[in-house]
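Exercise 7.
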Amino acid sequence: MIEVQGSPLSGMTFIDLFAGLGGFRLALESLGARCVYSSEWDKQAQIVYEENFGERPNGDITQVDEKSIPDHDICCAGFPCQAFSISGKMRGFEDSRGTLFFDVARIVKEKKPKVVFMENVRNFARHDGGRTLKVVQSTMEGLGYFFYWKVLSARDYGVPQKRERVYMVCFRKDLFGGADFEFPKPFPLTRHVEDFLLPESDETAALYDERYPMLLNPKKEDKPSSRPIKLGIVNKGGQGERVYSAKGIAVTLSAYGGGVFAKTGGYLVNGRPRRLHPRECARLMGYPDSYKISKRPNQAYKQFGNSVVVDVLQLIALQIAAALGTDGQN
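Solution. The predicted structure, written as tokens, is:
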């Protein structure tokens, strides 16, 4: 997380849909906004969310009556990527039926928040030939919102991870002029994987895996880089069997996948290859060390692989605050 000066979203309220571990909540609360409702269907994620925020999110959003959700200023939603089933002419709201985005749309239609702030995987922008994103855009515009979107990478915003995501920000047309919002500008990376590692301990020692000989590339790891530096492979070199330098950035953390270094990739630490610790994954997603993670490592890896980068959300939220007015009261 970045340190935010002041509380630019003070007085604003938000809801946290598809909440996961609460990355959106951490970001917006750091700017002074207050969460009034949360929803997450995954039971294990609910447990971790409650441990950190003192409330258990409501379950399946498809079963929630939109009228029962509290009024709010900002709707946050990292909804899953799904295909829209209706072909032919795009019909906006009607085309979104049968998908989880429809649940975001029906809540927005009922509650009319000032801002809708959404996130999805990079492929969302070109999913179904770009039609999926166009349906989301036409839906939001049909509901009375300006629609902005952009693919941003965490490595351009202070977090050394190759994690590219689509971010979407929508402003109610009757409250917003439509010309004053810009996504945050990239800045040079100053930290790398090695800056996010835990000290050597019994916990980190258990992460080393030397069952297979490592086949090294003739590449040195003596220069920091804003890219992943592949040093070699173990076994057959599949996705979870690649070893990278800790002086570069991390590969994208994943909720799924196999291999020796599944979900995190392998990194050469003190001359030996190991996967990342769940706490190191948390750091690479912008979660502070005070955040309580799942006591079940496999769940923790999955949860952070599915999560959002808090730093990027904070920076976008600062731009939202600037577009609304620095007091957050517009």
